[in-house]
């Protein structure tokens, strides 16, 4: 029999619409944390990519690629009565290539970037809001300096200065023999050894610049739909920020910050070369020309530091318009000038100084103390700004508005663990069997040892918190046990089944207690950090040596904490590397850490340019463009259906739509963290006012949730319209025991497989019924658009 061509199908579809048949409906599915395949989302092994690339794309069932070109009765498959289904697959934006596992090593930068978005809600035009953002950017800058300073500590101090300058250490390592003073070679002078070792931190800075620049070109280059916004209008400051056309387009700010942080890295290395060299040149007998060159370099370093701070402070994000301009002079000249200063420092350090010998340690202790004190002062100032903002607009915000400063403390703590862990392990390896810092051998700065000593106490506090929450889960489970059977009347009780359901619900409730872990851990980290800085500054000795005159029990405790902390700090770095690799090779491991990772990389890089890239700057424009172009081309109704993190992407995309398109779009969310996580931790962007605004702007919205879900929850709109959005809690498991429809025990689904619940199809159909019936586009435009769609699909 002859088969229809696409043109025949398009003509029949057009004829049907002329006869009164409405346009096709579409369901756009967006998956959540951990990713999935289009085959699983569409429940069909035969799928085709409609639009997109290998990184993120829209898929359909092979039978529905040209569904708009055919009358509804010609569709095949079990979903022929429902809307056409599309799956937007974005998991490769955060996973995919296993080399991206190295992004996990940038975890401190990602956490610092999160602090920018955790401010309490307020009019974004307020000066306090801008001040808060400024201090977050400065904290992020200190993290870059800390990481590069840690690399300098390993390369310049431990290897080039201490080990290569010691005949015992260098003699046992053949790869360091040419640097040993015993050989009297050209590289044996301390300045030349330092200049050669500067290649390592310089390469690290270059690698960070390269990764940021490459991801900037790929992720921050997706153009959003442009709509003019009058920021001077009185109501503009109260509009949700996610409505603004430039929110998901951060090319300019990321380029500026990348230039500043790259320059800061080069200047940190230059300071590590210049300061010890000028110290020697100022000693009696130093050369006058060398001394003058040293002062000139110090002046250039100070000027470069002022320029870096000025660039970071000058401006933040521009969200009210799609700002495509680039400050090309800044992004080129600033890192170029810093690299030139570094080159001059290398030449200056390589100047011949025959009488110079490396003894002791480089002045790294003072540098790390200065960084720690600066971070503490900036975080305290951030906390003051956050409290002022919280008092002006109190709400359901964790830690009384101090979530941002608390997360900034954790970012600095993670940075110290990374820098200190590498230094501790390198010192231990170079020093052989000796304990670093306990003798005349190889030793890292005293402050890093003090920080390591505090880690066992911090871990004990964390274990105590976990025990408290374990007891809490046990008590909640026992309280729930008598109520479980109320949801399954007529069923025969099974104690094991009942306890399993109650335990799942109790564990799911721990998500709401996360502030009671983050807050105490951040406070203890800040206090222990302050104590470590004080101890290192006052005693200038490692804790084990500083406690020699203390009673025996105190001395033994200090020695034990120092040794254990040194190993734990190094182990933390190794575990981070191991988990990084495993997270991108094992789906189970990825799901374990996927919540934090996908939340952290959802937000644009507003504070730290070396953070992992923001996948939403690609995903949100993708979804917005797809909804706008499909509704304009085909004139049908559309339900965007988001699970878990996909519901956050769906909401962000709906916010970006124009008024005409929103009138044809319904929002269906399930397992959604919109209020439970984002609304609490990011109240300025997903708080009650913002979610209420979304409810008023979208035509209709329904949210599905379960008590057993540890991530999703109800939306809880504040004006009493919550039942219009929130469906009642879904029953989980669907049945308690065995039934004719479920002869095997039904699983407890928790956060997954919401589409298996019969309520899902009913709610989706209800949303489509609430959308107004649409008229097809003009025949010429519709036919041409359909034919174009068919050709692009093929």
Automatic annotation (TrEMBL):
Membrane spanning stretches: 131-151, 194-211, 259-280, 292-314, 326-351, 371-390, 402-427, 447-469, 516-538, 558-580
Record key words, sorted: Membrane, Transmembrane, Transmembrane helix
Highest rank taxon of the organism: Bacteria
Biased composition (Basic and acidic residues): 60-81
Record keyword Transmembrane helix present: yes
Matches recorded under InterPro entries: AB_hydrolase_fold
Location of the region described as Disordered in the Swiss-Prot/TrEMBL record: 1-28, 53-81, 768-794
Name assigned to this protein: Lipase (Class 3)
Organism: Streptomyces melanosporofaciens
């Amino acid at each position: 029999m002859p088969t229809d061509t696409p043109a025949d199908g398009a003509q029949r579809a057009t004829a049907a619409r002329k006869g009164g048949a409405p346009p096709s409906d579409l369901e756009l599915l967006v998956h959540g944390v951990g990713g999935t395949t289009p085959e699983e989302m569409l429940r069909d092994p035969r799928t085709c990519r409609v639009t997109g690339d290998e990184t993120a794309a829209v898929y359909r069932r092979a039978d529905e690629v040209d569904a708009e070109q055919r009358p509804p009765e010609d569709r095949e498959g079990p979903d022929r009565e429902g809307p056409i289904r599309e799956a937007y697959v974005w998991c490769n934006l955060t996973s995919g290539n296993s080399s991206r596992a190295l992004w996990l090593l940038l975890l401190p930068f990602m956490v610092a970037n999160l602090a920018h978005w955790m401010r309490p809600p307020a009019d974004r035009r307020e000066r306090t809001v801008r001040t808060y953002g400024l201090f977050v950017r400065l904290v992020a800058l200190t993290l870059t300096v800390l990481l590069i300073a840690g690399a300098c500590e390993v390369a310049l101090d431990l290897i080039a200065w201490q080990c290569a300058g010691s005949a015992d250490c260098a003699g046992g390592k053949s790869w360091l023999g040419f640097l040993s003073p015993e050989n009297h070679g050209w590289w044996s002078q301390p300045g030349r050894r330092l200049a050669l070792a500067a290649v390592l931190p310089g390469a690290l800075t270059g690698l960070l610049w390269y990764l940021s620049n490459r991801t900037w070109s790929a992720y921050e280059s997706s153009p959003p739909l442009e709509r003019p916004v009058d920021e001077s209008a009185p109501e503009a400051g109260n509009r949700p920020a996610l409505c603004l056309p430039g929110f998901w387009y951060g090319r300019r700010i990321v380029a500026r910050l990348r230039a500043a942080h790259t320059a800061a890295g080069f200047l940190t290395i230059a300071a590590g070369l210049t300061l010890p060299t000028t110290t020697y040149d100022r000693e009696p007998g130093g050369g006058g020309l060398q001394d003058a060159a040293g002062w000139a370099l110090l002046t250039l370093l100070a000027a470069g530091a002022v320029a870096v701070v000025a660039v970071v402070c000058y401006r933040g994000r521009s969200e009210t318009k799609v700002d495509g301009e680039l400050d090309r002079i800044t992004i080129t000249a600033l890192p170029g000038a810093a690299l030139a200063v570094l080159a001059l420092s290398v030449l200056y350090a390589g100047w011949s100084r025959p009488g110079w010998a490396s003894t002791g340690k480089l002045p790294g202790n003072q540098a790390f103390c200065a960084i720690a004190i600066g971070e503490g002062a900036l975080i305290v100032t951030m906390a003051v700004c956050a409290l002022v903002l919280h008092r002006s607009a109190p709400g359901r915000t964790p830690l009384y508005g101090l979530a941002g400063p608390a997360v900034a403390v954790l970012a600095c703590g993670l940075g110290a663990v990374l820098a200190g862990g590498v230094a501790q392990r390198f010192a231990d390896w170079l020093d052989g069997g000796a304990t670093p810092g306990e003798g005349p051998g190889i030793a890292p700065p005293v402050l890093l040892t003090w920080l390591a000593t505090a880690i066992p106490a911090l871990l004990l506090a964390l274990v105590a918190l976990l025990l408290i929450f374990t007891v809490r889960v046990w008590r909640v489970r026992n309280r729930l046990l008598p109520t479980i059977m109320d949801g399954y009347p007529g069923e025969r009780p099974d104690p094991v089944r009942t306890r399993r359901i109650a335990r799942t619900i109790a564990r799911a409730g721990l998500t709401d207690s996360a502030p009671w872990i983050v807050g105490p851990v951040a406070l203890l980290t800040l206090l222990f950090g302050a104590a470590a800085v004080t101890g290192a500054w006052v005693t200038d000795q490692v804790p084990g040596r500083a406690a020699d005159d203390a009673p025996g029990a105190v001395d033994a405790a200090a020695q034990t904490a120092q040794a254990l902390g040194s190993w734990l700090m190094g182990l933390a770095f190794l575990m981070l590397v191991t988990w990084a690799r495993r997270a991108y090779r094992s789906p189970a491991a990825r799901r374990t850490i996927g919540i934090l990772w996908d939340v952290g990389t959802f937000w644009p890089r507003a504070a730290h340019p070396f953070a992992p890239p923001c996948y939403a700057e690609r995903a949100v424009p993708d979804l917005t463009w797809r909804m706008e172009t499909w509704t304009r081309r085909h004139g049908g109704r559309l339900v965007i259906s988001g699970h878990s993190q996909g519901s956050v992407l769906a909401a962000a995309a709906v916010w970006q739509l124009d008024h005409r398109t929103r009138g044809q779009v319904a929002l269906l969310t399930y397992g959604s963290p919109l209020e439970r996580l984002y609304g609490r931790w990011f109240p300025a962007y997903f708080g009650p006012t913002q979610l209420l605004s979304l409810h008023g702007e979208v035509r209709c919205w329904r949210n599905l949730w379960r008590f057993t879900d540890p991530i999703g929850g109800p939306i809880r709109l504040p004006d009493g319209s919550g039942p219009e959005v929130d469906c009642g809690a879904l029953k989980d498991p669907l049945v308690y025991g065995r039934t004719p429809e479920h002869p095997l025990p039904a699983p407890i689904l928790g956060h997954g497989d919401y589409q298996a619940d019969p309520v899902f199809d009913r709610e989706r159909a209800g949303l489509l019924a609430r959308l107004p019936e649409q008229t097809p586009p003009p025949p010429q435009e519709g036919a041409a658009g359909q034919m174009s769609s068919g050709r692009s699909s093929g």
